[in-house]
Write a structure and sequence with these properties.
The structure is a single chain. By secondary structure, the chain is an alpha+beta fold. Among the domains are: 131 residues, Substrate Binding Domain Of DNAk, Chain A, domain 1 (Sandwich), CATH 2.60.34.20; 141 residues, Serine Threonine Protein Phosphatase 5, Tetratricopeptide repeat. The chain is 37% helix and 16% strand. The protein is built from 14 helices and 14 strands. The strands form 4 sheets. Strands 10-9-3-6-11 form a 5-stranded mixed sheet. The chain has a 5-stranded antiparallel sheet with strand order 5-4-7-8-12, covered by helices on one side. A two-stranded antiparallel ribbon has the order 1-2. Helix 9 packs antiparallel against helix 10, helix 12 runs parallel beside helix 14 and helix 13 packs antiparallel against helix 14.
């Protein structure tokens, strides 16, 4: 990785060997207002990234300057002797103007950690005073990606970051697990209904969680997202099961009650997707999927919470083009596509046809998704005609 200053212009070499050119006056203004990330001790050849940019660390790389205020995701991935890369390990931070953040390399865990020194404030003050001398080893933030990153995270506030990131601060592709008693497993306690040995095989086929080992997340390592209510409550009366399945307004209302404002849901949606998109966090993708699966299946919620759903459709328009390749192919086996289709139907029915059309056009252009017969009546909902025999 190199930072080249020539002809009073900044050039940043990305992994694709492309370069960023910037007007000198703009660069000076961004340098004066932007945040600074200083990293120490990271081995040469380590993969490093911030937001949507990824680099390979060279001998003279010590961090990033000109970081725009707002939320940013930083990660590293160590390289093995044969070029194999370890899973990404990172952290999320809400940068303020002129803020200096210092991280150091943990050689045992092979990840970035907060600086372990007696007086961190003194070190930051020293870095600030000598920033002009450090500039040559600090890479400029690649502003070619700043608009795209703002589209994905523009609603996220510092309070949302503090609430959702793991207590320990580090975000991994998979959370750490530890063994636990069966009663403490995340799926709940042991089954309360006894079943005969004859039905044991059927139970295992229907409930795959019985095959899982007794594990639970290590405290402080998992993202702290809001609990997503079930579309059909476990204690629902038989007469209410169909109602909840057809329109889960009660679950959506319960979800929104967990936030101080409805915008809190939009913030968490964006942050969870950023954890997945940049940090490859499996738990964050699962949380995002649960939210989509809930919000997409209520026409009443669209009518009742119009502003929230307008914002949600805009969020999805920017997120869906970044889906993993296996989720980009439309079809009956793609649950994301099916949920988005159901959401579009409910947006139209709930009075948000403009938002639905805008999202539809975006997905047709970016993903090639088509929604033929979107507003046609579902054959399963049509009356069944039975021909009676003649008298």
């Amino acid at each position: 990785f190199r930072v080249i200053i020539a002809s009073e212009q900044y050039f940043t070499m990305n992994k694709d060997n492309s370069s960023m050119k910037m007007d000198p006056q703009l660069a000076l203004r961004l340098l004066a207002d932007g945040g600074v990330l200083v990293i120490a001790g990271v081995p040469e050849g380590t993969e490093f990234g911030i937001d949507l940019c990824a680099y390979t660390i060279g001998p003279d790389f010590r961090g990033v300057k000109m970081i725009p205020p707002g939320v940013h995701y930083v990660w590293c991935s160590s390289r093995g002797p044969y070029g194999d890369a370890a899973p990404r390990v990172g952290f999320v931070h809400f940068f303020h103007p002129n803020e200096i953040v210092v991280r150091e390399w943990d050689h045992e865990l092979e990840e970035l950690r907060p600086r372990r020194i007696a007086e961190p404030e003194v070190e930051r003050d020293r870095i600030r005073k000598n920033l002009a001398q450090l500039e040559r080893v600090l890479a400029p933030y690649d502003y070619r990606y700043v608009v795209q990153w703002k589209e994905l995270t523009g609603s996220v506030t510092e309070s949302c970051v503090d609430r959702c990131r793991p207590t320990e601060g580090t975000i991994r592709t998979n959370i750490e697990l530890q063994s636990c008693p069966d009663a403490d497993r995340p799926r709940g306690g042991a089954a309360t209904v006894s079943i005969s040995r004859r039905n044991a095989a059927a139970r295992i086929l229907l409930d795959e969680s019985e095959l899982l080992p007794d594990l639970k997340p290590v405290e402080g390592t998992a993202p702290r997202f809001t609990t997503v209510p079930l579309r059909v409550p476990q204690d629902a009366l038989p007469a209410d099961v169909s109602r909840h399945a057809l329109d889960c307004i009660d679950a959506v209302d319960k979800l929104l009650e967990g936030f101080e404002t409805a915008d809190g849901l939009i913030e968490e949606l964006q942050l969870a997707y950023a954890f997945f998109l940049v940090g490859y966090s499996v738990e964050s993708l699962a949380h995002w999927r649960k939210l989509l699966g809930l919000l997409a299946h209520s026409q009443t919620a669209v009518t009742k919470h119009k502003l929230t759903y307008m914002k949600y459709s805009e969020v999805l328009a920017h997120q869906l083009p970044h889906l993993p390749e296996e989720l980009m192919v439309p079809g009956p086996h793609n649950t994301v596509y099916k949920d988005v289709r159901e959401l579009l139907v409910n947006l139209h029915a709930g009075g948000l046809s403009v938002s639905a059309e805008r999202l539809t056009k975006r997905l047709e252009k970016k993903l090639g998704w088509e929604f033929e017969g979107l507003l046609d009546e579902d054959p399963e909902d049509q009356p069944v005609v039975i021909e009676l025999p003649e008298a």
